[in-house]
């Protein structure tokens, strides 16, 4: 059975009204005739772009799969449902809130990614044991009440996972040899990916090259490979390059931030126009369990003509990052 067509500009009807309802629920209301008529017009596009900007997604004003999933997840509030380890893993803003509260109290729930996985379960069990709650690994009413009573989710505290990531970076060795790297590509960057992977292998790294179009499959493969770094590449029709690392409310990947700045500087040195590195919640950055960066390279003609130079520039950025992964980004 074919998937239903997602709402897009010019469409109208109940499916657009549902989109308006979800946007209104996350404080990006669509007003005026578009709301009353259930029409996808300029106001709907503007609200979608605003939501995408807040969520760290690509700001194109279209209801792609990542935006649709984010709208659903944004509707979950901590305490609305029981949270526990499930297959497939539960996702939502309520889980990100839980992770942030646990991390702020010193219980390592892993990255604040809104995905209820084994790290979150372990932190939740530890919290329950330390506070006299039944250690069942379920965030139900009593556990949520206990978290709120202890004042978790402090805006001034850094989650323990972020602190530990930086400590791990400081302890890592400076050599690229025998390090495990994942290089992924989307679309028309296969040649560049091959060149970059070859350059890193020539320097002694173990490299897995990923070419599946599904972000989640690339992320799962990189995780199973136990990669120490993920670098994604795609070529887009934009005026300049955009470099992204994982960041969400209350949390950022320290390794991703530093690798992103290295990549941005290297690409600028190769003659490309590069915007400052940006923290985002793109699916590939969210799903990978290691420092991850996505390089959106542009314009296509310039990138293709300089494939060898771009590959060497990115390889140099990886080498420099491995040599001093905890260096302050500049």
Low-confidence stretches: none
Number of individual domains: 3
Q: How many runs of DSSP E, i.e. beta strands? A: 7
Class per helix and strand makeup: alpha/beta
Characterization of the model:
- The protein has helices spanning 14-25, 33-37, 42-55, 65-74, 93-104, 118-130, 141-149, 160-171, 190-202, 215-224, 254-269, 283-287, 300-305, 307-323; strands at 180-186, 206-210, 229-235, 242-248, 251-252, 278-280, 292-297.
- The model has no long low-confidence stretch (mean pLDDT 92).
- It starts with 13 loop residues before the first helix and ends in a 7-residue tail after the last helix.
- The chain is globular, with a radius of gyration of 21 Å.
- It has 14 helices and seven strands.
- It has 330 residues and is an alpha/beta fold.
- Strands 1, 2, 3, 4, 5, 6 and 7 form a seven-stranded mixed beta sheet that branches.
- It has three domains: 14-74, Muramoyl-pentapeptide Carboxypeptidase, domain 1 (Orthogonal Bundle); 76-153, PGBD-like superfamily/PGBD (Muramoyl-pentapeptide Carboxypeptidase, domain 1), CATH 1.10.101; 176-323, Aminopeptidase, CATH 3.40.630.
- Helix 9 (190-202) packs across helix 14 (307-323).
- The longest helix has 17 residues, at 307-323.
- The chain is 47% helix and 11% strand.
């Amino acid at each position: 059975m074919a998937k239903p067509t997602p709402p897009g500009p010019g469409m109208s009807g109940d499916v657009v009204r549902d989109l308006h309802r979800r946007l209104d629920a996350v404080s990006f209301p669509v007003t005026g005739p578009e709301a009353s008529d259930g029409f996808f017009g300029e106001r709907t596009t503007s609200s979608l772009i605003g939501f995408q900007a807040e969520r760290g997604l690509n700001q194109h004003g279209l209801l792609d799969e990542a935006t649709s999933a984010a709208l659903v997840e944004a509707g979950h509030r901590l305490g609305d449902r029981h949270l526990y380890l499930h297959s497939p893993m539960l996702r939502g803003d309520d889980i990100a809130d839980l992770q942030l509260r646990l991390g702020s109290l010193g219980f390592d729930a892993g990255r604040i990614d809104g995905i209820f996985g084994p790290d979150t379960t372990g932190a939740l069990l530890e919290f329950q044991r330390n506070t006299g709650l039944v250690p069942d690994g379920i965030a139900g009413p009593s556990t949520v009440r206990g978290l709120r009573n202890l004042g978790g989710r402090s805006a001034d505290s850094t989650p323990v996972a972020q602190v530990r990531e930086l400590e791990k970076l400081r302890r890592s060795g400076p050599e690229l040899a025998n390090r495990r790297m994942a290089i992924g590509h989307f679309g028309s960057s296969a040649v560049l990916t091959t060149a970059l992977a070859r350059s890193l292998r020539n320097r002694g790294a173990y490299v897995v090259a990923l070419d599946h179009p599904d972000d989640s499959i690339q992320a799962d493969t990189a995780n199973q490979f136990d990669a120490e770094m993920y670098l994604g590449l795609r070529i887009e029709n934009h005026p300049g390059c955009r470099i992204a690392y994982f960041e969400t409310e209350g949390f950022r990947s320290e390794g991703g931030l530093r690798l992103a700045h290295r990549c941005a500087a290297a690409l600028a040195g190769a003659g490309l126009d590069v915007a400052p590195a940006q923290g985002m919640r793109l699916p590939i950055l969210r799903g990978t369990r290691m420092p991850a960066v996505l390089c959106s390279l542009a314009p296509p003609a310039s990138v293709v003509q300089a494939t060898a130079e771009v590959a060497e520039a990115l390889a140099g950025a990886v080498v420099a990052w491995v040599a001093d992964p905890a260096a302050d980004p500049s």
